[in-house]
């Protein structure tokens, strides 16, 4: 018996053997691309691919964090003064929203993993998964809206780097450097959040159709890995940018 036939003849969610006719009828329930021998191999490859992608993202953000750390060491007083200009209220709300979105994302993954392979269960759980993913995407969109208001406030106070930038005192140049790094870090992070929101909306649409369940939930799982990484980056950004100096 080939690996593909074995997968079709066994329910991966329960470990029980299927009836021969049931295995044939549901062979298409475990899709895998032609370059893979079976669904398990495709799942492992997808997970590895996502972890490798996240490793490159760690290197990408790590370079920016390294630049921030070096300049903060050299211009500590100026960076502390600049940090006091940021809104801790906005930063705290952003953090609360993203942490809540991690919870709804984890619940979506758990629901997909525990869904039985039956039409009724897939239909019922699919809608639950879709709603949880939409809730996660909505929280991500809320984060972006809050960040937009914060950027507008920074612009109104002339903290946007460029010709309109203004900060009283002799360390204006170093403070402007802080805001350059601040907008680079938070802007790139917001771009990743936006990509995640779009991704989760697509996953929600597919989930509503009952596509994901215990035997096939890998797209939900790797989407969750990406979302949790985005949240983790913000967990580092919040204290480094907003809380480096007493107020």
Care to give the gist of this entry?
With about 250 residues, the chain is mainly alpha-helical. It has 8 helices and no strands.
Mean pLDDT: 83
**End-to-end CA span:** 69 Å
- Supply the CATH architecture of the largest domain: Up-down Bundle
Helix/strand structural class: mainly alpha
What does this structure look like?
The chain is built from 8 helices and no strands. The protein is mainly α. Mean pLDDT is 83; it is low at 1-16 and 18-29.
Comma- or semicolon-separated keywords:
2 domains; Four Helix Bundle (Hemerythrin (Met), subunit A); disordered N terminus; mainly alpha; 247 residues
Helices and strands, with pairings:
Blueprint: H1 3-9, H2 20-25, H3 39-74, H4 76-83, H5 88-113, H6 119-156, H7 172-208, H8 218-242
């Amino acid at each position: 018996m080939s690996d593909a036939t074995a997968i079709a003849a066994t329910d991966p969610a329960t470990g029980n053997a299927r009836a021969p006719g049931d295995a044939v009828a549901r062979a298409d329930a475990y899709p895998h691309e032609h370059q893979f021998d079976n669904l398990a191999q495709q799942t492992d490859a997808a997970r590895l691919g996502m972890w490798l992608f996240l490793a490159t993202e760690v290197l990408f953000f790590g370079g920016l964090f390294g630049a921030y750390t070096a300049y903060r060491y050299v211009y500590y007083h100026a960076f502390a003064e600049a940090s006091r200009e940021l809104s801790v209220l906005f930063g705290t709300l952003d953090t609360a929203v993203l942490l809540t979105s991690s919870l709804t994302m984890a619940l979506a993954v758990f629901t997909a993993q525990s869904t039985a392979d039956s039409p009724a269960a897939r239909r019922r759980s699919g809608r639950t998964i879709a709603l949880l993913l939409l809730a996660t995407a909505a929280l991500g969109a809320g984060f972006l809206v809050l960040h937009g208001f914060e950027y507008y406030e920074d612009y109104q106070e002339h903290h946007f780097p460029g010709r309109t930038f203004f900060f009283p005192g002799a360390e204006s140049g170093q403070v402007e450097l802080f805001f350059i790094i601040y907008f680079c870090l938070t802007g790139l992070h917001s771009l990743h959040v936006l990509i995640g929101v779009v991704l989760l909306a697509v996953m929600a649409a597919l989930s509503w159709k009952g596509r994901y369940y215990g035997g096939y939930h890998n797209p939900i799982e790797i989407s969750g890995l990406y979302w949790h990484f985005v949240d983790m980056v913000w967990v580092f950004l919040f204290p480094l940018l907003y809380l480096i100096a007493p107020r």
